[in-house]
């Protein structure tokens, strides 16, 4: 599978623990707000289809996202930030998210390296806490 611009990490915990730790880390960060949570497995089940556990949590920090959108409004397609937690066919739990540096190139963002590096560092810390 081609995962251009996607960073994926393997969790050392089960699906529910990984997701709850991720959510807790985000909720306990005063700079972040959870915007939405989607349970793709439940949505599939509602129409009689099966899907391995798959959830996404969307969250943001307008102080960081807004300057990026002021620079290139199309990044609004990829904001707020999203982290996907899923269990693959082999039972391996993973977390995946968009690489902010890929989004920089995708949307042609200029002169925002400090913000992009801050976002990249935060996403790395948040996901490391969820999988550890």
TrEMBL record:
Residues of the DUF302 domain: 39-100
InterPro entries: DUF302, TT1751-like_sf
Transmembrane stretches, start-end: none
SUPFAM superfamilies registered for this protein in UniProt: TT1751-like (SSF103247)
Origin: domain of life: Bacteria
Protein name: DUF302 domain-containing protein
Annotated source species: Flavivirga rizhaonensis
Lineage: Bacteria, Pseudomonadati, Bacteroidota, Flavobacteriia, Flavobacteriales
